[in-house]
């Protein structure tokens, strides 16, 4: 009995250690990836364009709009300043929807006709050649590419890049479909 107890204890500890350590584990979470897509919102495309993606249904899609030298999380309401000859109180929202195959970036909730309610400068500023960064991240934030710390503020693009260890120095670029 004296010899059996240490062997049993050793077997238990070995089993416990083996079950807790998994060096061959392949992380099945989505690898955080980014892609820039540039497109123009027009009446012909119903003020929307689509970019193909491929993610698990449990993962998260973040979309940021390029604003000068910064990235701004959408959805984002845009309030257009009053302009001579244009309707007053013009506003719309950059928004997106996604599924496991596509992200559609669009303009929603406009309170005026976009095709007649913007002058040429505003069309260039708000509708033409707009660049968005699509960021795919694991929903649980516990994958191998995420730190084990407090949740990230998704509104802060730089915090997301740091949290998920993303390299944004050479992001692939595509034209919208």
From TrEMBL:
Q: Which domain of life is it from?
A: Bacteria
Which species is this record about? Answer: Chryseobacterium polytrichastri
Q: What is this protein called?
A: Uncharacterized protein
User: Which keywords, in A-to-Z order, does the entry hold?
Assistant: Signal
Signal peptide start-end: 1-21
């Amino acid at each position: 009995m004296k010899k059996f107890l240490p062997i049993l204890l050793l077997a238990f500890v070995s089993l416990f250690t083996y079950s807790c350590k998994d060096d061959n584990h392949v992380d099945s979470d989505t690898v955080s990836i980014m892609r820039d897509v540039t497109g123009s919102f027009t009446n012909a495309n119903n003020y929307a364009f689509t970019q193909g993606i491929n993610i698990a249904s449990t993962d998260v899609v973040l979309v940021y709009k390029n604003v000068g030298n910064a990235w701004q999380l959408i959805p984002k309401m845009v309030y257009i300043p009053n302009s001579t000859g244009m309707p007053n109180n013009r506003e719309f929202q950059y928004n997106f929807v996604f599924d496991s195959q596509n992200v559609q970036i669009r303009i929603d909730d406009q309170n005026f006709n976009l095709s007649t309610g913007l002058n040429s400068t505003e069309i260039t500023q708000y509708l033409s050649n707009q660049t968005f960064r699509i960021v795919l991240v694991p929903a649980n934030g516990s994958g191998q590419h995420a730190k084990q710390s407090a949740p990230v503020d998704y509104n802060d693009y730089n915090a997301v890049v740091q949290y998920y260890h993303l390299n944004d120095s050479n992001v692939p670029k595509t034209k919208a479909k």
